[in-house]
Amino acid sequence: MSKAFDAVEPGFSILRCEACGLGCTFPPVPDSEIGSYYPETYYGKENVRFNFVFEAMTRLFQGRRAAVLNRHVPRGRVLDVGCGRGYLLKFLKDRGYDPQGIELSENSAWHARNRLGLDVETGDFLAVAHRQARFNAIVFWHSLEHFSKPAEAIAHARGILNPGGLLAVAVPNSESLQARLFGRHWFHLDVPRHYVHFGTTALRTLLTQRHFRIIQVDHFCFEQNPFGWLQTIYNALGFSHNLLYELLKSKSARTKRAMERPVQTLLIFLLLPILLPLSLALTVLEAGLGRGGTIEVYAVKE
Fold first, then answer.
1. Which of 6, 50, 71, 89 is the most buried (most CB within 10 A)?
2. Confidence category of residue 40, pLDDT binned at 50, 70, 90
3. Across-strand partners of 100?
4. Cβ atoms within 10 A of the Cβ of 214, count?
5. Which residues share a beta bridge with 300?
6. Residues near 202 by Cβ (< 8 Å), separated by ≥ 6?
7. pTM beyond cutoff 0.85
8. What is the average pLDDT score of the chain?
9. Which ranges of the chain would DSSP assign to H, the alpha helix?
10. Structural domains for the chain
11. Do residues 220 and 292 touch, judged by C-beta distance below 8 A?
12. Residue 15 burial (CB count, 10 A)
């Protein structure tokens, strides 16, 4: 691997394999220390991360995701790895599935357990239970990039999937237009919480080498990609890194710097009528070119 660029986060760089395009964060934070990059404010009080409008949109998108899985997966056990607030699990349960989740910490699992009453385990996916379980589907929705050993995570998932079971993976796409045009300013890098940075090629290779047959790849994601463009453009224009993202958070999840830049905040909203339509147009363009800012891949265990 060779160095692609220095990350915005001090002390970290992005390395990239010239053969497959896979990127990685260097140096990787040891598993024993990575928890410090997920403070309570990362999740927000009671796992409420965004303002009420975006919280409602989150539930809407999770409901759509449950409907997509319902078209591919028969009723039975479904495991969401990195289930977050648990909305996907709730919508699957409402559709008659037996959903289970796993999260990194008690903080991250709080809402799914205490507000939604769902079955969520905490700990390392590679080390905790499920070894005797068998699932009709396993979901890694923007969680695989948080694994220091993603190949082992996929291999483990294959081992606990039923024959013909579905693997659903969504990750930021390092081969996307927004990633390649803007490099270190790309919103979806999230260094150092993202250990690896997949492109479409690298993710396809990982899945096929672990004996999965890919049945669908989607490059259009209204939930992620327009905002990816929007925040990335602001970053590249010199605004405080990911400031708009901070402003959209709930008070309990927002950092102080979001309130310390009133001039930048005003300029962000003044530019919004121009940059938002541009971001939507670029989202359609990148999807048409097969270079979406994030990708969703559905694969079947062979």
1. 89
2. confident
3. 79
4. 15
5. 166, 213
6. 17, 20, 21, 22, 174
7. yes
8. 91
9. 40-43, 52-72, 87-94, 106-110, 150-160, 177-182, 200-209, 225-236, 243-247, 262-288
10. 2-223+295-301 (3.40.50.150)
11. yes
12. 16
